[in-house]
Amino acid sequence: VNPFWSYKTVERDIIKKMRNGNHWGVLAEAAAGRACAHLLSCAAQLRCAFSKALLIRGTPRQVLIELFPDLNLFEAIRVGVERTCADIADFVSAPCLAGCAASDSQEVAKDMRRVVYSRGIEATA
Predict the structure, then answer these.
(1) 124: Cβ contacts below 8 Å, ≥ 6 apart
(2) N or C: which end of the chain has fewer CB within 10 A?
(3) How confident is the model at residue 78 (pLDDT cuts 50, 70, 90)?
């Protein structure tokens, strides 16, 4: 190996000189970056579409577990989220009991007095 130059450094220098030789180097770099990003995006979309197809088309469970090792975890999370959403919906859709709370409290107090008087228990307040 020559101590003054190496193939990689000479190659890097030549590429740099070619790119800097005109103003098209910056534009070419940007276009190459955009093309690379687009290809990566397309690959991710293909992977997503393929995964959906596998999950929807009735692929055997064992194959799905082998392809997606965390499938059981995601299914458990989905079930938990669905239960939580149902609980929240039930809570939110429950009727407002604030209007009848006062009358219910009075009914309970009357019933308690009746029980106390029927048993002969002296009320201590």
Answers:
(1) none
(2) C
(3) very high
Q: pTM value?
A: 0.37
Residue 51's CB is within 10 A of a number of other CB atoms, namely 13
Q: Which two tokens stand for residue 65?
A: 């577990």
Contacts of residue 19, defined as CB under 8 A and 6 or more positions apart, other chains included, come to: 25, 28, 29
Do 28 and 19 contact (CB within 8 A), yes or no?
Answer: yes
Residue of 56, 55, 57 whose CA lies nearest to 65: 55
Tokens (6 digits) for 61? 């469970």
Task: Categorize the per-residue pLDDT at 3 as very low, low, confident or very high, splitting at 50, 70 and 90.
Answer: low
